[in-house]
């Protein structure tokens, strides 16, 4: 890329950055927890249409998704919000097509009194923009738009097809991203600006979600020996699951990209509910678990390993033997992936990053779910998960670094110009 | 008591028993969980008035109750339903006055699909009447009325004042019973027909209710080491509480009436709730605990022992040391009692029981809360907790034995005639 074009792109990102910040704040202002994403997706639809994209909007199909090996069950709470795709066609297809993707669902805010800043306020203090989803990943969603706007500002547009995909269900199933694949969308590469600390995700784990329910005969607490406390029993099942977690962590040396992670496999008990009355021995307890798996492992194989282990444990337990816990998969059924180094897409991103940051692009392993798995595993295209610095993602006072976002947007604009080529509008 | 009167009373109970069963079913048909007892207490008010009692109805006073050493805090969910007292004055006070008490609040039914019978149906199958509260203690509430009705059926009434007390909050605080004391009610003895297996409660434990809340900084599960899982932390606190439970159980030899109980002190974790999202490390977890204490121990002393133990444990825990658990007393603040054997009231009950059952009256220790503690500890009167056979109290398909109820009602009618004397209506 010639120096003039490069400098013009960098300047254009700077010139549009105030507008980009305001746009990101607008996105943060939508409460878009699971099932609530209708208004933000409608905003996106109208916004992209106004920016000149051709628009496609479609539903997630339970039949199609649950027939696919990477699809997750439609449990209670599954979003019905649409998936939105904005399509840019160049005057002439000159180089390589690209998918720019983001998700706009966010996780719950938790007890609001534990926030110093308003969860949907998008408040800016110094370099930080605060809010649920500010990092994960509304800043990235804004960057997808404003990387393209930077080119427009200097009279250019990509010289190849670009798909701007706005999805939901990233935080619970990954069904939104998978539906774009099932709809037939593909390209020569995909870029997803998740909050990745200005780095490239080299590998990400798969994730399983499941609920465990324990039920048993309750009694008055004075006869506690006769009854069985479902809350105590649930805790014993959690203990058995910790054995699985330890076993899988002990296998990390066999998994490329995970050898140096201190604890690549995390099992999280994210929600627990049980019992109805202080002086009644609880008859029921349910908990929601999330566990990661290594790339290359099949989600259903690992789920079976979990259910078998719970069954074996339960058989040896005086209470659980009579009341076997019920395990229900109620979300992620996702494999992980490993991004082979050396692709032309990665090399292009690395060059752009070096210009924007004046430093080499680093890569790292993330023991989290990424929608990137859909493009890596099923589209089988180079998939670049790369995005800004953030903190407290899924926590309180989540924020994104604005200077990081500015530089990441520069990388993205340069990457698009290089990967797709440019043409005059 | 002469044989003719005795036989007439026994016959009168039999003759009224179908009506008594229908009345008990009517009581069971009221869903009267905590806070819902308005309609059943209004039914009682109208019913007692129609039966000729002078009526008193009053509120539980938060100020009065929380100033009393046996009063429990008014936590969320505390009932506002009134306390109802029906008063019988004889033409001439000849013998000894009596309090007949029952509570009409019931505990939650739990998941309804775990019931074979309808929780509020009062269905009768053979000897059993099923329903939430059938045993605990709507059968007793009916017996209080129909023991007196048996006398009326043969033209008699007690020759002393009788207070028929219908209270609430027995399952959570005992504040209803305590309010009758604070209102000034007292008598020469009290009888409470709780479901006690045709036996007399010799001793009952005190009970404490408290909630423990753990909060901590949550993070995305990929950074689990940085955050702290409040659900895991809550289970560690439960472990520390089990140490208290074991310590107190080891002291049972020092407590009259509890030496032979296999496990006199039960700590029950009755409710647990925590977390908002499967893939977020939970920031909060709350659980509701209930623990018993021995008679003679002060509730506040034992609560302090618990909070001190939790504090000490927390100080040594990497996460809890930074995020001390909050302990809130949110119910029972009750001492237990020991009924001194040999009172005239007990002897009178024993004679009546022997007539009704043809067997000696047995006594036993119950490691549960009983409203009887109010009359034993504060009124300082002989308090007889004695009532029918039941099963699955606080559980599913709770039922009361009707033949047991019939005989218990006979005991009660004989007891009243003997204790209070009789006069022609």
UniProtKB/TrEMBL annotation, chains A, B:
Protein keywords: Cobalt, Hydrolase, Metal-binding, Zinc
The keyword Metal-binding is assigned to this record: yes
Domain called Peptidase M20 dimerisation: residue spans: 205-315
Family of the protein in this entry: Belongs to the peptidase M20A family.
Lineage: Bacteria, Pseudomonadati, Pseudomonadota, Alphaproteobacteria, Rhodobacterales
Organism field: Paracoccus onubensis
Cofactor: Co(2+); Zn(2+)
Molecular function in Gene Ontology: hydrolase activity; metal ion binding
Cited CDD domains: M20_ArgE_DapE-like
InterPro entries given in the database record: ArgE/DapE (IPR010182), Bact_exopeptidase_dim_dom (IPR036264), Peptidase_M20 (IPR002933), Peptidase_M20_dimer (IPR011650), Peptidase_M20A (IPR050072), YodQ-like (IPR033687)
Protein name: ArgE/DapE family deacylase
């Amino acid at each position: 890329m010639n120096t003039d074009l490069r400098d013009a792109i960098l300047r254009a990102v700077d010139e549009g950055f105030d507008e980009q910040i305001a746009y990101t704040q607008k996105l943060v202002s939508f409460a878009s927890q699971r099932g609530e994403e209708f208004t933000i997706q409608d905003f996106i639809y109208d916004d992209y249409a106004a920016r000149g994209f051709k628009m496609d909007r479609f539903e997630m199909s339970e039949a199609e998704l649950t027939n696919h090996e990477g699809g997750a069950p439609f449990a209670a709470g599954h979003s019905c919000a649409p998936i939105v795709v904005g399509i840019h066609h160049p005057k002439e297809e000159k180089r390589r097509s690209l998918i720019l993707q983001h998700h706009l669902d966010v996780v719950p805010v938790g007890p609001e009194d534990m926030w110093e800043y308003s969860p949907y306020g998008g408040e800016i203090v110094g370099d930080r923009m605060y809010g649920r989803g500010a990092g994960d990943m509304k800043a990235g969603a804004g960057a997808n738009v404003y990387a393209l706007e930077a080119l427009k500002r200097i009279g250019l547009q990509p010289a190849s097809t670009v798909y701007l995909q706005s999805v939901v269900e990233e935080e619970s199933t990954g069904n939104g991203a998978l539906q774009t694949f099932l709809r037939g969308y593909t390209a020569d590469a995909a870029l997803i600006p998740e909050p990745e600390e200005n780095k490239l995700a080299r590998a990400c784990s798969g994730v399983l979600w499941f609920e465990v329910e324990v039920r048993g005969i309750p009694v008055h607490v004075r006869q506690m020996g006769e009854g069985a406390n479902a809350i105590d029993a649930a805790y014993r099942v959690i203990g058995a699951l910790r054995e699985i977690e330890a076993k899988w962590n002990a296998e990390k040396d066999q998994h490329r990209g995970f050898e140096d992670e201190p604890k690549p496999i995390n099992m999280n008990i994210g929600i627990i509910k049980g019992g109805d009355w202080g002086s009644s021995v609880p008859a029921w307890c349910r908990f929601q678990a999330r566990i990661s798996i290594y790339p290359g492992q099949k989600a259903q194989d690992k789920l079976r390993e979990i259910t078998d282990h719970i069954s074996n444990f339960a058989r040896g337990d005086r209470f659980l033997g009579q009341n076997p816990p019920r395990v229900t998969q109620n979300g992620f059924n996702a494999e992980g992936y490993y991004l082979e180094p050396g692709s032309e897409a990665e090399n292009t991103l690395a060059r752009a990053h070096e210009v924007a940051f004046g430093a080499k692009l680093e890569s790292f392993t993330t023991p989290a779910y990424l929608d990137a798995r859909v493009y890596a595993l099923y589209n089988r295209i180079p998939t670049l998960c790369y995005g800004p610095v953030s903190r407290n993602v899924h926590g309180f006072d989540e924020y994104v670094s604005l200077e990081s976002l500015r530089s990441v947007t520069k990388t993205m604009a340069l990457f698009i110009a290089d990967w797709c080529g440019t043409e005059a509008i």
